[in-house]
Structures are given as structure tokens and as C-alpha cells.
Amino acid sequence: MNRRDFFQTTAAASAFASLAAGGAAPLASGDADWFDRPMRWAQLNLVEDDPAKMDRKYWLEYFKKIHADGACLSAGGVVAFYPTKIKFHHRSKWLAGNETFFEEMLDGCRKQGMVVLARTDPHATYLDVYEAHPDWISVGPDGKRRPHPDYPGMWLACTLGPYNLDFMTDVTQEIVELYNVGGVFSNRWTGNGMCYCEHCRNDFAAAYNEELPRDRDPRNPVYRHYLTWEQNRRFEIWEKWDKVIRKARPEARYIANSGGGATSGLDMKKVGELAPTLFADRQCRDRVMVPWANGKNGKEYRSTLGNKAIGGIFNVGIVSPYRWLNSTKSPAETRIWVQDGIANGLRPWFNMVSGQLRDRRGQKVIEDLYVWHYRNEKYLRNTAPVARVGIVYSQQTAEFYAGAAGLQRLIEYPQLGVYQALIDARIPFEMVHDHNLDPQNLSRFKTLILPNIAALSKAQCQQLREFVKYGGGLVATYETSLCDENGTPQQDFGLVDLFGASYVSHTNPKSNVALQNTYLYPEKSSDLYPVLLRGLEDADSVIGGTWQLTVKTGSGLPKQPLSRIPAVANLPMEKTFWTVDKTDIPEVCMNHVGNGRVVYFPWDIDRVYWEVMAGDHGTILRNAIQWVTNEPSPLRIVGKGMFDATVWQQKDSMTVHLVNLTNPMAMRPQMSELIASPPQDIEVEIPNGKKVSRVHALVKVGAIPHAMSGRTLKFNVPSVLDHEVIAIDFA
Ligand SMILES: [Zn+2]
After folding, report:
1. 365 alpha carbon – ligand 1 mean position (Å)
2. Has domain 3-123+156-190+254-382 been given CATH number 3.20.20.60?
3. What pLDDT does residue 667 have?
4. Which of 23, 33, 264, 499 could be 600's S-S partner, Cβ–Cβ 3.0 to 4.6 Å?
5. Ligand 1 center from residue 221 Cα (angstroms)
6. CA of 193 to the centre of ligand 1 (A)
7. CA-CA distance, 388 to 410, in Å (whole number)?
8. Cβ-contact 341, 311 below 8 angstroms
9. How sure is the predictor about 400, in pLDDT bands with cuts at 50, 70 and 90?
10. CA angle 174, 178, 181 (to 5 degrees)
11. Which segments of the chain belong to CATH 3.40.50.880?
């Protein structure tokens, strides 16, 4: 049985075939299955005096001008923007005389064909609630009720108890009964951290007969119980709110502002099943942060939501770290951020805090992006990404193996390192949730990358084994598969047969201290040397890992192209002489298994690449990925610069997105100017049965000269300023 037969017989329908075509349908809000229609979202995160002070007409006209077809308007929770009748639900003090404010905005949006979501926020409440229902308030580990840290006189609500389960359920129900909204979107509904209130203590004790944990150590079974208990409660609240919403308005749904990747607090597999649509909230950025972080969210959400509509929430202001909520950042930064989201399948959603503008500069940036998006909507209604490589991410590895203390070193940095290596190599790729390793989900992929995915069950290892056996490629690093699904260390790798190597020991003398001054010896006598060290032929040595495992290769493995040069002293200088020139300890295991290929690095090549950015490691990672993939990439780009490059299929076309990240600020997101890229020679593989009728650019609008060679389409893009989309129409 070859790989194709295997997938045809095991997968009822391939991921590609099962994806429904998008197609621009006329907009009519308030009907079932509205979720796929809105392409551009507008959110007014209202402040309490907006009902009296904001210019409603301005906003409705602005929504129309920018072709927004979805809106999110604040309705209740902290402040009710409508005449609520629920006790303790505080009406805006500026609602008197403006009682129809929410209704007017809703009607105005709906008349323009927009779907409207009502926003709620349950994280904070008032003194009268504190006095009447002290048990609704969040309690800290010291046993004290927690005042709101930013707003004196208010209190943090317990979001796991009756405040959410009862009070916010009533609020949610009242909103959907009164107003024809597409759903309720709530923010900070999981907020405020671990709570020690009487409900949390009693409910946890009832479930586990234990006291709430005081630490966040993933090796502490009580904390692991807590994680499960908390997650179950969150989903209970989600499903309860969804139920009351659908009872009142069958076409409406609860839309949680939740989700993410490996470090997300909610199981993304279940989120993907529950949510009819979801939005990645990426309004804040850190001081140092990759410019492709928004797009990464798109890949992560898609990994469990499939082809459901996903949006990317952005902000034109500098919201982090000091919360200048009404500010405006450089248009270059906003553009690249949003474009990278679009290139990765996110539908743009701007959030404006307050309807009263304090700086109008952001309005033009949004307008430019949205009007372009509207004009090219046909080419942005993707039916499937074209990518043969997937990066696996694992919430169980983050929660149970790394814990909060290990998140950066063991989870985020390895993942960011391989992500950057793929960006560097311009290889299109997707993210893959580790609970989606079944043949149907994997059928679209040729290669999976496991950046230190330490916690894997026997069943997951078996799925990976099958994937490789039938022709898949695998690249894995460091402690991948060395623990079970609960993060408990095992005697040997779960994937020992794929790696062709057994675990012997951890090399670092102290588990929390990095090795310094280590090297790799390139073994030119290995048949695999020309493959793995392509481009590094002049290297006599390469810098080594900072966390290493010693492994013993099996007899079936050929001679490997990298071996260990053990850590040399690094100070005093006089003592830094090498005592060993090389060893026979392998630092890579390249293996053939069935019809597939595997490269295992028993050290943190991905993490070191992220932290140190030594080009050698990027080159070795690229070579490893290409060797295991063993087929041409569906997209090949030659030219200088850094791009986030993606390829998509639509109903009657394909698109290639190039987001130009070539910028002196590239590895911070705060770009202040856009710099045009040099020319790029591009080759795209055209699917069988498709005939190219036209190739044209959607940003620098115009035809693109091109040539076909077999199934390969070749063309040149002379320059990209920020974003270019090459549309390939099929006859
Ligand atoms: Zn509580």
C-alpha cells in the first residue's frame, strides 16, 4: 500500500475535498450560518459616556465607507448600554435620554447589511454587588476579596462561580431576547486568575476531595486536577451561555474571546469544535516581538477550526504595555501586522476603544486596508491553504511537562525557532494541534515538525509512526516523545524506532543551566553530509546546543553527518583549549522508516536558533526539512529579503501572498517606514486539472508576465512594498 492508497482508504474525505467553497453571498444578518459571511469587522469598545457623547452617524457612515460587514458593539457586563432590567447590571450613567442608543446603532448596522455581535465583559463589578453577594467576588490566595487593580472602588468578579453562571447568564439572555444580534462576544470572561472563593474551594473539593493548589507546578497532581477542573468549568459556562442564546434566537451563538496556540488555557481542539467562528485577539504587542505573530495566530486557530471563518482583532493604537488606548501607531506597523494576518487567512477586525476619537490618524489606515480588502474579496475567500509542512504544537506539553516556569525555554522558543526557519526558507506551512494527528487531518501534509513536543501518548506516537511509515517526513528535537501525555518522563523515547536512537542521559550537569561553548563536528565521510550541510561546506565546526541529550544510535542507522564536540571551558581564556577534537556521539539522527524519512536532533537546535539566530542552524533546519519532505515545495521564491509567504486556493483561483518583512525593525514589530523589496523569482506548482488563464497582482494592480513549465508556473515580482498578492485565475 502506498501513501496515497493509505490516505484514500483511511480518510473518508481529504481535507481539501471536504472544504466548502466560500463564494460571496449577499449579506443579510440575523439568519443561520451567518458566520462565514462577514469579511471585515468593526468593533466599538464603548466607554460609559459614549451613549451621550459619540457621533453615531459618523460611525455608521464610516462602517459603510470601509465596507465593514460585521460589527461588535458593547452591550453589557461592566456597563449596560441599553435599558437593562436586571438587578446589579449597572446602566451607563449617560443612558438617560439616550435609552435607544444601542438599538439605534444595531439598526443602523443591520440596515447596511452588517452582522452585529453584542459584547459583554464579566471581569469587574461594583460595591453594591460586593455587599449583596460577597461570594461573587474573586478571592486571592491570602483569602481576601480582590479589589480591581486599576479602578478604585470596583472589584474583580469570580469568573468561575455564580457571577458568570447565574448573573451573566441572565445578562446574556436579556440581550439576545431584546436585540436581533448574531451572537454575544465576551471579553475577559476567563479573567482574574486562580480564585479561592467559597464556590471555587467547595466545587473543587467536591470534584477531587482536595484543597485548591497554592503553586503552579505541573508535577503537582493537585495542580493538574485544578487545570482540568477549571477548563471543564469554562466550557460549562460557554455551553450554558450558548444554550440560552440559541433558545432565544436559534441563529445566534456565543462567541468567546479565547484561543491561541500551545500556551492557550482552553483546549483548542474543543474550542475548534464548539466555536462556529473565532477571532484572534492580537491588539497588544510586546517590545520585542516577531512581525509574523499575527499570522501565526491564523495558523493556530485554523489548526482546529478548519475552514470556519477566523478573524484577527487588531488595534491601530499602542496598547501595550502602558495601555494608551486612544493612541495611533505608525501606519507601517499596522499595515504589516494586518496584512500578515490576511496572508494567513485572518479576516481583519479593528477594535476602537471609545466611539469618541482622540486621534483620527488610525481611521485612514483602516480605510485603506479595508477598501483594498473589499475590492479583492473574491481572492481572499480562501477555500484551503496550500502547504505540505506542519509545525505540531501541544497544549499538554505546555501544561503538564513545561509548566509556567518552562514555557519560554521548552515551548515557545523551540516553536518560534522552527517558525522563523520556515519563514527564512519561504516554505509554506501550517500549524497542527497534537490531538489532530489522525490520518484525515494529516493527509494534506508531507512533513511534520515537532519542536520539543515532549509529552506524547502511546496513541499519538503510533499516529506519527503510521504517518512516517506511509511516506511522511518528520523533524523532531530535544525531548520530543520522552514523556507520556501527562508529562511524566519515560525510560526511552516514544518514537525510539523513528529516531533510530535510544535515550541514554541528559548531558547538562545541572538541568536548569545551559551548556556553553559547545560545538558540532561535520562528518564529511557521512553520505548524508552533502544533504544536511548544504551551504555549509566550508564549515570546520558549527556551534552546538545548550541543552543536549546523549543518545545511542541503533545498528540500522547510517553514519551521521554531525557529531559532538563536548563543552569546552569558557573562562579563563587560557583554559579554553580543546581537549577533544571530536567524538562518535551523534548530534543528529537521519533515518529512513518505511517510505518516510526522519531527522531527530537530540538537542535544542530550534531554541538556540530563536535565541541566537546563528545562520548555520537556520540552514541545517531548512536542509533537514527539505530532506524529509522529499518533494518540491509548492512555492519556491528566490531573491533577497524576508517574507511571510503563503499560498491559498479559492473557488476559481489561487493566490500567493508575499508580506515584506525586510525592514531594519523586522524582529520588533514597530516598523516606522516601509522599504520596497528587491525582485523575487517565483515558482508555484499548479494543481492537476487546473489551467492558468491569467496572472495578476492585486496591490500594484496589473498583469504579471509568466510562463508555464509542466505544472510549474514561473514569474517575477519586481518589488513588494508591504504586501503583494499574486492572483492566479483558472480557466
Ligand atoms: Zn471563585
Report:
1. 42
2. yes
3. 86
4. 499
5. 20
6. 9
7. 25
8. no
9. very high
10. 100
11. 389-629
C-alpha cell at 192: 482574574
Q: Where in the chain is the domain with CATH 3.20.20.60?
A: 3-123+156-190+254-382
What's the CA-to-centroid distance between 192 and ligand 1, angstroms? 10
Please give the grid coordinates belonging to residue 14.
481529504
Q: Is the pTM of this model over 0.85?
A: yes
Tens of pLDDT along 85-98?
A: 999 999 999 999 99
Contact 165, 237 (CB under 8 A): yes
Residue among 232, 149, 160, 240 at smallest CA distance from 198: 160
As given in the structure block, the three cell numbers for residue 506 are 541528559
H or E element that contains 442? helix 439-442
Q: Residue 197 Cα, ligand 1 centroid: separation in angstroms?
A: 4
Q: What is the pLDDT of residue 32?
A: 67
- In the chain, CATH 2.60.40.1180 covers 635-730
- CATH top-level class of 635-730: mainly beta
Q: What is the pLDDT of residue 13?
A: 33
Distance 186 CA to ligand 1 centre (A): 19
Per the prediction, the chain carries an average pLDDT of 94
238 membership: H or E segment, kind and range: helix 221-248
- Measure 127 CA to ligand 1 centroid, in angstroms: 17
User: What is the Å distance from ligand 1's center to 183 Cα?
Assistant: 26
Which one-letter DSSP state was computed for residue 125?
E
Gap from CA of 181 to ligand 1 centroid (Å): 30
CA of 169 to the centre of ligand 1 (A): 16
CA 235–ligand 1 middle distance (angstroms): 16
The half-sphere exposure of 309 on its side-chain side, counting CA atoms within 13 A, is: 22
User: How many A from CA of 590 to the centre of ligand 1?
Assistant: 51
What pLDDT score was predicted for residue 342?
98
Cα distance between residue 685 and residue 298, in whole Å: 23
Which pLDDT tens digit goes with each residue over 132-172?
Answer: 999 999 999 999 999 999 999 999 999 999 999 999 999 99
Would you tell me how many other CB atoms lie within 10 Å of the CB of residue 617? 25
Return the C-alpha cell found at 520: 558540532
Q: How far, in Å, are 418, 584, 595 from residue 561 at the CA level?
A: 20, 11, 21
The CA distance from 418 to 595, in Å, is 24
What are the tens digits of pLDDT across the range 221-253?
Answer: 999 999 999 999 999 999 999 999 999 999 999
- What is the Å distance from ligand 1's center to 203 Cα? 9
Ligand 1 centroid, distance to 146 Cα (angstroms)? 11
The residues, any chain, with a CB within 8 Å of residue 232's CB and separated by 6 or more, are: none
| Spacing, Cα 160 to ligand 1 middle (Å) | 6
Report the CATH superfamily, name and number, of domain 389-629: Class I glutamine amidotransferase (GATase) domain (3.40.50.880)
Quick one: which of 233, 234, 98, 249 has its CA closest to 177?
249
Compute the distance from residue 140 Cα to the ligand 1 centre, in Å: 9
Question: What is the whole-number distance in angstroms between the Cα of residue 19 and the centre of ligand 1?
Answer: 41
In a 10 Å sphere around its CB, with 0-12 CB exposed, 13-18 middle and 19+ buried, how is residue 5 labelled?
exposed
* Residue from 469, 380, 447, 443 nearest 649 by CA: 380
The rounded distance, in Å, linking the Cα atoms of 184 and 399 is 29
Q: What is the pLDDT of residue 4?
A: 42
| Ligand 1 center–CA 210 separation, angstroms | 15
- Residue 164 CA, ligand 1 centroid: distance in Å: 10
- What letter does residue 321 receive in the DSSP assignment? T
Instruction: Place 288 in a pLDDT band, splitting at 50, 70 and 90.
Output: confident
